[in-house]
Amino acid sequence: MSEPRTVPERIAGQATFLDDRLGAGSFVRRNIRKVFPDHWSFLLGEIALYSFVILLLTGTFLTFWFKPSMGEIVYNGTYAPLKGVTMSEAYASSLQISFEVRGGLLIRQIHHWAALVFIAGMMAHALRVFFTGAYRKPRELNWLIGVVILSIALFEGLTGYSLPDDLLSGAGLRVTQGVVIGLPVVGTYLNFFLFGGEYPGGDVISRFYSIHILLLPGLILALVTAHLILMWMQKHTQFPGKGRTNRNVVGAPFYPAFMAKSGAFFLFTFAVIAALGTFAQINPVWLYGPYSPADISAGSQPDFYLAFLEGALRIMPAWEINLLGASQAGTIPLSVVIPALVPLGIIVVGMALYPFLERWLTGDNREHHLADRPRNNPHRTSIGMAAVAFYGVLWLFGGNDIISANFRISLYTTTWAGRILVFVAPALAYAITYRVCLGLQRSDVAVLAHGVESGVIKRLPNGGYVEVHSRPPEDIEAHLRGKEAVPVLPYDETVPPKGLRGPLGRLRLRMSRAYGGEKVPPVNGHPHDEDGQAALQEGQNRALTR
């Protein structure tokens, strides 16, 4: 019989010292057994978090050698093709990091890939939260924090992209300057604040550097911390299933299961990003040369997260408003203002307001800890896919010159195709997604009513053959039966509520009835039951009439 394990005296003494002064023992005991559900989609947010940690570590390494100065020097480093070329200290230090600092090029490329994975992970995480309705009460504040983090990350990427001062980043910086100076009223002031004078000025690199390594990372770090604290305080969402309700969480405890999986997943994320940094070259600044306002490289493309702005600028017609005749002071260049403000405004503002608009439409003030399957709220899923299509069209036509050159299509044709698709593609995505969601709901109803294929063939008395269906497994059945109807505003035909009597109230009611309700009624019976068969037929008939 083994003796009970004891804590070493030195460790016990230090632990008691901290516990007496910080109360850490009770905090750890209370939180170490917190339960986290197990589903692959919950790892999307962790990808973004781990990429951010990698960004902080690699960015700290790069600050030791990068010189944020636009002062001109003659390059005399190890990269022979550029020896004797006049360039900025920022570009020269980028070359030094790439060719003279041990491991510098690897860290540079890991940093760049981590930035791409960070933003892509946040986008995927935001889509997961939106499609499953995980933004609903009590998580509206955390959703808003996530939207702000994503918005700040876009500007963080822009400032970092511009720091090397090579010809490619300089082209992107020139586009940024054109957008900034085109903004009404504040454009000129912002331009002088960023560039320190007429473009290109002499201060933009140093100012972007301060913003990139201090201001924006500090804001992101604070918001990520608040995001994680709120997530920890609230119950984690989970998908419907056996034993899962709005009042519990089914999964594994934080220690040791979740910690072990998270540690392994961090190492996996780091390994993937390190492999990309090792084998997939990105941003070879030495090939572009130093930036000069008089030069431009063909086929210049920004990173993917800013391509939507490039696409909006390229397909926007050359419209402008002249308030004071032909005077420059009264001209508002809509060809710049609309692409700069409208696409990002539609997506970001729409994301921020959606939880409150949905609650206004449905009148649903309940707490939700069970996530929706995207198919079970077809209008929400269709709206999300329409936004994805809108972003995708702008992203695609940010390279309309590349499309024209490679597919031998005139630039005029690709530009007009983008102008048409930016309106048509979201509408098609909405309609197609809505029908797909209804089809998937009918498929779920068929599984509950008919059961699943058993592989057993039965011969009927008349000589025919049918496959025997069996009841689905309990966990699958519980998952399918976890569907809830989208709430609809209550309405009394005789005496409408006070808030629904005016024109706005009637519009709200009509929108609520269209958005909510049961599109495909669920099955109450079990496979081969008469109730199940009747419910299936009724659901299919009702769905086909919508």
How does this model look, in words?
With 546 residues, the protein is mainly alpha-helical. Helices cover 61% and strands 5% of the residues. The chain is built from 19 helices and 8 strands. A two-stranded antiparallel ribbon has the order 1-4. A two-stranded antiparallel sheet has the order 2-3. A hairpin with an 8-residue loop joins strand 5 (321-322) and strand 6. Helix 3 (43-63) packs across helix 10 (254-279) and helix 12 (307-315) crosses helix 14. It is globular and about 90 Å long. The relative contact order is 0.09. Mean pLDDT is 87; it is low at 527-533.
SSE order and pairing:
Elements: H1 9-22, H2 24-31, E1 35-36, H3 43-63, E2 72-74, E3 86-88, H4 89-99, H5 104-131, H6 140-162, H7 167-182, H8 187-195, H9 204-233, E4 252-253, H10 254-279, H11 285-288, H12 307-315, E5 321-322, E6 331-332, H13 334-362, H14 378-396, H15 400-407, H16 411-450, E7 452-459, E8 465-470, H17 474-481, H18 503-515, H19 530-544
Antiparallel strand pairs: 1-4, 2-3, 5-6, 7-8
Region (Disordered): 516-546
Catalytic activity: a quinol + 2 Fe(III)-[cytochrome c](out) = a quinone + 2 Fe(II)-[cytochrome c](out) + 2 H(+)(out)
EC number: 7.1.1.8
Q: What is the N-to-C succession of helices and strands?
A: HHEHEEHHHHHHEHHHEEHHHHEEHHH
| Rg value | 29 Å
Largest beta-sheet characterization:
2 strands, antiparallel
Write down the overall mean pLDDT.
87
β-sheet strand percentage = 5-15%
> Could you give the count of β-strands?
8
